[in-house]
Amino acid sequence: MRWAGQQLDVETPGTLPGLGSIAGLVRSVTTPEFRGITFHEVVARSALNSVPGTSLPFNWTINPYRGCTHACRYCFARPSHRYLELDQGLDFDQQIVVKTNVVDVLRRELARPSWNHEQVALGTNTDPYQRAEGRYRLMPGIIDALAGSGTPLSVLTKGTLLRRDLPLLAAASEQVPVGIGISLALGDEELRRHVEPGVPSVRGRLDLIRAVREAGLPCGVMVAPVLPWLTDSPDQLDHLFGELAEAGATGVTTLVLHLRPGVKDWFMTWLAQDHPHLVARYESLYAHGSYASPSYRKAFEQKTRPLLNKHGFGRPSTHRSDPLPGPPTQPAPRSTQPSAGSAQPGARSAQPRARSAQPRANANHPRGIVEAPGPTATSDSATGWGEPDPTTRFRRPPPPKPTTQAAPPTQQPLF
After folding, report:
1. What strand order describes the sheet that includes 38-42?
2. DSSP code string of 74-103
3. Of 198, 251, 267, 341, which is least surrounded by CB within 10 A?
4. Three-class HEC string of 135-182
């Protein structure tokens, strides 16, 4: 990706609302390759975001970018831009904040004695493999830092740039559990161009699923969101599930569109322009909140279940790298663990093995990636990817595995 001829402007208060007063802003960058988009490079004070007290299978996330050039009309993360005093419409698509020092900050945070090596999720807010990643290359350092510290990780993306880092992710899966999820909800390429104008093509993401599987990694797929009366017909779903099965997806989670305040206004504006005949039906369907009516969701599940079964997604499987064989090893007591600056090579090399062994033993726990609560869940964090209301959740059957001894009942699950 060429950034020749880029224009650099030092940000000043008043030039762009909100950003002039944000601590850590270094510069704003525009380039012909990203016409109409401005990247605001900041020096971040933290990398790990805590999200405790939810039903998510993880308590920590990393968001190297804020805003997203995918420009999905339905994106639930749009309201987060208001914290920057930017709007949740075009500003979210075109004003992208880049945490340029996120890798260095992350390494420091992971080295703290208080870090418990809990799973960290990427892609729960904005996509870490949006186009800007081709320029800033933040993900390789993030993957290396997490795996090197014995921290399990998961990635959810629509970006085919993930293919670049498959060797890193495959290597990381030999150290810690790694979860890979691809978001692909629209099988109609023409509709995709209108609803997800900045997202790679349908064919490109199907090829990405194949590449993930060829790299020896499992790959779950989020068919999310399903758009009522646009992408929810049995024929459309049957065709999409068939393509996912042919590409080798190890699991599928379906999710009906939800429209949070603010996002709903943005989406409905597009709907009125492109599909005005559906406006009244959507207003009725979402009249009582962010979720489609219970009757619609129930009917959707009833028609989707046999289609998923038809394509082999009817039984549970895991979407993370397989655990390494061997009995679980409990981490050493905190008082005996060497500090990040320890000069004892033997102690430092042994410590990550002890830390990562327990997560591997629990990698197939039902609270793992794309294994969160089932179709009756309705909270905003029920799917395991930070998305609400998993209307239907099915996976392809796993290959036969040799019988192994069950973990002791006293062992605590990772997720």
Report:
1. 7-9, 25-30, 38-42, 95-99, 65-66
2. T-TTGGGGGGGT--SSHHHHHEEEEETTHH
3. 341
4. HHCCHHHHHHHHHHCCCCEEEEECCHHHHHHHHHHHHHCCCCCEEEEE
φ, ψ at 154 (rounded to 5°) = -140, 150
- Going 385 to 73 to 239 to 127, the CA torsion angle's sign is negative
3-class secondary structure per residue, 302-335? HHHHHHHHHCCCCCCCCCECCCCCCCCCCCCCHH
3-state class of 28 per DSSP?
A: strand
**Would you say 375 and 391 are in contact if contact means Cβ atoms under 8 Å apart?**
yes
Q: Collapsing DSSP states into helix, strand and coil, what is residue 345?
A: helix
**8 Å CB contact between 174 and 152:** no
